[in-house]
Design goal:
Helix content: 40-55%
Distance between the termini: 27 Å
Strand order of the largest sheet: 10-9-6-7-8-11
Number of helices: 11
Largest sheet: 6 strands, mixed
Number of strands: 11
Shape: globular
Strand content: 15-25%
Structural class: alpha/beta
């Protein structure tokens, strides 16, 4: 007998960067387990993720993490109805570990395989934190590798409003943190420093601010901050790190917030969601919330644990993809440069 949609059990696997994660979801929105094994302590001494080391750690972690996800869910592996896995974007070696494990599981259990776009997964994390959330809505995706505005018209219908032309916001945060001598991961350190600084102390540039332009660029801002730091050092001035962090963060946030609400206004959406690792930035979350309240727009963002890379969001995306028949075959391969594009299934 065919299962009711709400009873479908999805096993999800995520290994795009330095988190090995597995989750079990029931009906797409009920998280039975979400196990995350992070490699941050391993990569901290290198100041960033070392791809080869990340791949080796995934190989060690993947099966224990899957076993623990199944155990915590209180089910047997044989109860799984489908397997979802991130196949891009990300580090190719890291992705291959997850994809290989997922294909082996799907084959051995004789269940369907679903290849999931990691960035779509970040958007769908919001469905797990806001059970009543339904499309359509505007999504601001801000992560280490990507910055984009996506009009989510349906569960399987997206329109790309605009994305970054060069550096992503999260990448800029990490690079500035490294130059300032802050430990990896840099984003949370900048956020903490910024809370103690004067955001108006330094006037850093903002790019592509013309009305109706939904693309982003942070390379010029990054260069401006680096030039300011080098100039101050050459003059023998002591760096006011909280002011630098706050001024840099203000410049990023103003661009993100401005474009997000322009897009909301243009499309007539009544809801804005924040997605991606940088969603954990308290300054960004606060400014978006304030602006949403002012405009009468509903604002959603995922729980902190769902902002970072995790398999629960992949399982949620995979579930809705499967309802539209978006399955993969066992020839599924890792696509490290996979982009977020228009989709209408």
């Amino acid at each position: 007998m065919e299962k009711n949609e709400k009873e479908i059990l999805t096993l999800a696997v995520e290994s795009s960067c330095d988190e090995t994660s597995a989750a079990v979801l029931k009906g797409g929105r009920t998280v039975l387990s979400n196990i995350i094994s992070t490699q941050i302590p391993v990569h901290q001494k290198f100041g960033g993720v070392v791809p080869e080391i990340a791949s080796r750690k995934h190989i060690v972690n993947i099966l224990p993490v899957v076993d623990e996800a199944v155990r915590q869910a209180g089910i047997r592996l044989q109860d799984i109805d489908q397997v979802a896995v991130t196949y891009g974007p990300g580090l190719v070696g890291a992705l291959l570990v997850g994809v290989s494990a997922a294909k082996a599981l799907a084959f051995s259990l004789d269940v369907p395989l679903i290849g999931v776009n990691h960035l779509e997964g970040h958007i769908f994390a919001n469905f797990l934190s806001a059970p009543d959330l339904e499309p359509p809505f505007m999504a601001l995706v801000v992560s280490g590798g990507h910055t984009a505005l996506v009009d989510v018209r349906g569960y399987n219908h997206f329109h790309m409003m605009g994305q970054t032309r060069d550096d992503a916001a999260g990448e800029a945060f990490d690079k500035i943190a490294r130059v300032m001598g802050l430990p990896y991961p840099g984003g949370p350190r900048i956020d903490a420093l910024a809370a103690r600084g004067n955001a108006m102390a330094i006037d850093f540039p903002q790019a592509l601010t013309e009305k109706g332009n939904y693309e982003f660029s942070f390379s010029g801002l990054k260069s401006a901050v680096l030039n300011y730091i080098n100039s101050e050092k050459m003059k023998g001035h002591a760096l006011n790190q909280p002011d630098i962090a706050a001024s840099f963060q203000r410049s990023v946030i103003e661009v993100l917030v401005g474009k997000a609400f322009q897009a909301v206004q243009e499309t007539g959406r009544s809801t804005l969601v924040l997605a991606g690792g940088v969603a954990a930035n308290s300054g960004l979350e606060q400014r978006l919330r304030e602006e949403a309240e002012k405009r009468g727009v509903r604002f959603c963002y995922p729980d902190r644990i769902l902002c970072t890379d995790n398999a629960a969001m992949i399982g949620c995306r995979g579930f809705y993809q499967s309802l539209a028949g978006g399955f993969s075959d066992l020839y599924l391969n890792a696509v490290p440069g996979l982009s977020l594009t228009d989709r209408n299934e």
